[in-house]
Amino acid sequence: SVQRAFYAENRDVTDEDVLADLAAEHGLDRERFLKALRTEQAKIATRADFETARASGVTGFPTLYAGDTESGYAMVTTGYRPLDGLPDILEDWLAMPPTPSTGQVGHA
């Protein structure tokens, strides 16, 4: 929904009112959404997500990551890919040997 709003509808998805409208389109209470979005907890979580993306080398959108908080995350693909091609990309990624330093599958 956010991607459609940005790319297809040319809406400013950095505007909290646009995000609240999108939330309402999906059945969420608009005012409750805005209240939650404006909390310090949401701001901290958003900053942390951006920092994780930056530290991970994300330079494009969309980017697909896989993993978990224990063993870490690895970039599977970045940039647009047709949905029907993702199973092959994931299989190739899973077939990669683990990184020696982390043991993470597909993390080269």
Could you write a compact summary of the structure shown?
The chain has 108 residues and is an alpha+beta fold. The chain is 47% helix and 12% strand. It is globular, with a radius of gyration of 17 Å.
How would you describe this protein?
This protein has 108 residues and is α+β, with helices and mostly antiparallel strands. It has helices at residues 2-8, 16-25, 30-37, 40-55, 86-95; strands spanning 63-68, 72-78. The protein has a domain at 57-108. 47% of the residues lie in helices and 12% in strands. It has a two-stranded antiparallel ribbon. A hairpin with a 3-residue loop joins β1 (63-68) and β2. It is globular. It starts with a helix and ends in a 13-residue tail after the last helix. The model has no long low-confidence stretch (mean pLDDT 85).
**Helical content band:** 40-55%
Number of strands: 2
Any idea what the radius of gyration is?
17 Å
First and last CA, distance: 32 Å
Number of helices: 5
Order of helices and strands: HHHHEEH
Keywords summarizing the entry:
108 residues, alpha+beta, two-stranded antiparallel ribbon, 5 helices, globular
Which helices and strands appear, and what pairs or packs with what?
Blueprint: H1 2-8, H2 16-25, H3 30-37, H4 40-55, E1 63-68, E2 72-78, H5 86-95
Antiparallel strand pairs: 1-2
Helix pairs in contact: 2-3
